[in-house]
Amino acid sequence: MSDAVQQIKDRLNIIDVVSAYVELTRAGKHMKARCPFHSEKTPSFNVSPERGMYHCYGCGAGGDMFTFIEAIEGVDFKGALKILAAKANVELVPVSPQKKSERDRLYAILEDATTFYQAELKKSPESLAYLEKRGVKEDTIEKWRIGFVSGPPQSSWGVVKEHLLTKGYTEAEMLKAGLIKLSEKGKDSYDVFRNRIMFALFDQSGRVVGFSGRTMESGPDVPKYVNSPETELYKKSELLYGYDKAKQGIRQLDFSLIVEGQFDVVMSHQAGYSNTVAVSGTALTPEHVHLLERFSNRVVLALDSDKAGIAAVKRSADIMLKRGLDVKVALLVGGKDPADIVLKDPREYKHLIGKSVHVIEFLLEVLLSQGLDERTLKLRAREEVLPYIVLLPNYIDQDHFEGKVAEALRTTKDAIHFEVERLRESKSTGAIEVRPTIKPVAAPEIKKRYQSDLTYLLAVLPLFETKIADRVKEQLMLITGETIEALEEQVLPPARAEVLFRMESFLDKNPRKVFEEELVHNLTKFRDLVARIRLKAAREEQEKLQGGVDAEAELTQLKTIGELQKALQQPPYTVEIIK
Q: What mean pLDDT comes out for the span 380-388?
């Protein structure tokens, strides 16, 4: 069972386990919640994604994801194992001595192959000269266990196979380890890797689970990298190259640096960025992100600036922003990759990483550099930039980048904000947004926005002193014409609690002035939303009265419409209104 336990730990993040039972909010590097094991008003339940542990300062409960499930579900360890195995999609089968032996044999054969590749590198002056030309130092070669494998015409198609046969391994074991493959006829077998610099792929514990071979040749018909096929030990969607060596660096530098290839990882570490990782043979996956966010919620992408690289940035940003990570991009100009930049001047590389910009600014710069006409630029920005603003986890960031986009496109911030909200609504309802002009939003969508804004404004009031809270309540009653008691009845307790803990965590990390500005900004949004709701209703009523016999009623309705239109032109609230 220990093998299953490790697989579960590799695939699951404690945050995903605990968050299914309690609402967690970030508090620095930890997550915070009201303890599910005892009654409390102030959150004292803390979860560390970095440590994979939880602890309650109120009742003393603590442990890992297994003890949490035992306590919350009232089961023993075997019961917790079944629940977590189902969540992690791990098959629970008793590990027989034979099965354990088979896995041990796979690890052993891959270790022996690594040792063989390392020895072969030392015999190959051409390969050593190639690595030296790429700037890879001798101690780096040893640390990363970089090797080489020959092939035709200098040697046979089965150099590794022949060596491993002499070590007592079978061809069946080599196939399971991904070291050889069968010919089309299915009779003969040959090495997967030939004439390549060999990079060992390590799991989180530093064990070799596969390989990536980099050619020293060039040409359209020669793949730059060849990776091991997926095996029992090697899952592309779960492995980050360099992660076993980068964990401490990510923790110390408080961000992950994601690059594209093995050379980029190795050279970045050599340049001092010990927090660097790369995907291997696949795009970034949620499983990869789970690994990274254990140590930091900040990420810098240093990928190629070509079309493929930009597409990779977009895919990665989509996954990471949804998880609440802070995502930046290092602008690598001139088509150079990190390894080339480090080789030329490590200081330049550090300068570029230091000047990394938020992914939204990066995508905006990409569009601006294409020389598009004004209208096309705005339409493309709506499709390629604004969706990422929707994914941002807090209103202040959203407001900031709406301003950035508006300035770059030479349009109004209100126009950008409207489009962002429209994208958000179409996303939440599953609708496909195809409307070319501004039209009234459907009533259920307006109701959802009203509910969300009202929930925020009432939920955050306990975080302010009584004087400020009373001022906000006064404004809410003026805006809606309803009592605070009536408004509070419209807000669900779970939603209110979620906002409170989330904004309490935000307040811990930001100046109170910023928090007050966000409160006032949301109060303005709510005031304008209520005015738009009333304006829409007034216009609908006016259309019913138009041309009718009750001219006085129609005139009164037109006057109401005029007053509401003026109300929408009021300047935003300032912080002085709550002082």
A: 93
